[in-house]
Design a protein that fits this description.
It is a single chain. The protein is an all-alpha fold and about 150 residues long. It has one domain (about 35-145): AhpD-like. It contains 9 helices and no strands. The chain starts with 11 loop residues before the first helix and ends in a 5-residue tail after the last helix. The relative contact order is 0.17.
């Protein structure tokens, strides 16, 4: 089998550093809010799976492992609906991630939103949505410019 190589197209970080820094600042802000880092990594991995972003999957599975996330839970994320490994809170966050990432299908459904409101206060819910939006932005940059993970 021949080696598969991907050639990066451009570096938005180099071409538009102010815009890139704005996205980084959003990440820094979300990190400063106290939103659980484990939940943030589950969001990042799951959205990256849906978007087919190998760069972000590599990055965020590594970060999740460094936080102590179990391998079996990382492997189960792509089938979280059928997995008993996730808490009710994680399940609603993963449902939000799926629905917001695939927003053209149904958007964030009323059912998922109301379930999330029973588990999280409005500030936490807003932060979760911002994290989902943020990783989707990063995924789109990485896929469009063909960023390559080490």
């Amino acid at each position: 089998m021949a080696a598969f190589t991907i050639e990066p197209r451009m570096s938005i970080r180099n071409l538009e550093p102010d815009a890139y820094d704005t996205l980084l600042n959003l990440e820094k802000y979300i990190g400063s809010t106290g939103l659980d880092r484990g939940l943030r990594e589950l969001i990042r991995i799951r959205a990256s799976q849906i978007n087919g972003c190998a760069y972000c999957i590599q990055l965020h599975t590594t970060e999740a492992r460094e936080l102590g996330e179990e391998e079996r839970r990382i492997y189960a994320l792509s089938a979280w609906h059928e997995s008993p490994l996730f808490t009710p809170e994680e399940r609603v966050v993963l449902a939000m991630t799926d629905e917001i990432t695939d927003i053209s299908l149904n958007g964030l459904t009323d059912e998922t939103y109301h379930e999330a409101r029973q588990v999280f206060d409005e500030h936490t819910l807003a932060r979760l949505i911002l994290q989902i939006v943020s990783i989707n932005s990063w995924n789109r940059i990485a896929v469009a410019t063909r960023m390559v993970h080490p």
